[in-house]
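quick one, 382 residues, struct below
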Amino acid sequence: MTMTIKRRIFISNIRTVLVTLFGLFLTALVFQLVRAEIMGINFEDANAMREQMWQEREYESQDWRLRLLVSGPIFFVFFVTLISIINNLLNYRLIKNIVRPLQPLSEGVKQIHDNNLTFRINYQNDDEYRPICEAFNEMAERLEASSAQRQRDEANRRELLAGISHDLRTPLTAIKGYLEGLEAGVASTPEMRDNYFTIIKNKTAGMEHIIEQLFLFSKLDMDEFPLALRRVPLLPVISDMLEEVVQEYYQRGLALHITESNQDVFVSADTLWLRNVLINILENSVRYKTKEQASLEISAGVVNDSVFLRFADDGPGVPAEALPKLFDVFYRADPSRSAKGSGLGLAIGKKIIERMGGAIHAELPDSGGLAVIIRLPIAREP
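---
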C-alpha cells in the first residue's frame, strides 16, 4: 500500500496518542502508589476499596483522601481523551494545509502530461510551496518555448526539403530536356548544339552554386565553419567593397547611393565573409526590383556601443508578416518568384553576422521598398 503524506501523518498521530497514553498510564500508576504510601494504604487494599465503593455507590460519602485515590485514574483518562481529540483536530488541519497546495501541482503535472503547455499555477500564499509552483511555471514556460521552437524547426526543415527539391529539380529538368534534344538531333546545327551545351553548363553551375550555399549554411549552422575575425575599420572597408561593385550593379539596373560617414569605428569581423553578406543583400535587391533602374541607399550610424549599416531599396517590398521569415532557409515572400534565387543568401548572411556577434533584420520604410539593417558591436582598442 502506498504511504501517502496523509497516511504517514495519521500513523504518526496514532503513535503520539499511544505514547501519550502509555506515559500517562505509568504516571498515574506511580502517582497512585505514592499517594497510597503517603496515606498508609496498601496498594491491594486501595484497589479493593475502590471496587467496593464503586459497587456500593458510596463514592460521595467517603473520606476526601479516598475520593482522591479513586478519582485520580478517571482524571487521567479524561485528560488523555481531551488531548487526543485536540491532537487529532490539529493534525487534521495540518493535513489539509499540506495536501491542499499539492492539488494544483498535481493538476499542473496532468495538464503538462496532456500537452497543455500553456497551463500555469496561480499560487498566492507566501510559504514553502511558492518556490515549487514558481519553478513549475518556469519549467512549463521553457517546455512551451521548446515546443514552439521544435515546431518552427520542423516547419523550416520541411521548407528546406521543399526548397532543395524545387531548386534542384528545375535545372535538372531543363538539363534533361536539352540532353534529350541533343540525343534526338533537334540541335541540327553546330550553333544550336553550342547553345544547348552552354545552357546545360550554366544550369549545372547554378546547381553547383545551390549545393555550395547549402553546404556553407549547414557548416555555419553546426558552428563548424571558422571565421578569421580581426579588428578592422568598418566604414572604410565597406566603402572599398561597394566601390568595387558599384559600376557592375549600375549596369544591372541598381544604382548604389552611399552616404559617407566621418565616424571612425572598429569592429571584429571577417572581411571576406562580410563582403559575402553585402553581396547577398545587393543580389536580393537586384532580383526583385520592379523598375528598370532601381536604387539602393546605403548609410551608417553609431548608437551606443554598436554600428548600424542600413541598405534601403525602392523595390516592391514584402508583406509585414513576412519580415520575421526573410532570413529563414529557402523562404520566399512571393512563391511566384522562386526562379529568381535559392532563398539561401539572406539565411547565410544572418548566420555570418551572428557569428560576428551582431544581428540582422529587415523593416519596411515609410517611403516603400525594403530595408535590411546590420548591427555589429564596436570593438574597442585593446
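The radius of gyration is 43 Å.
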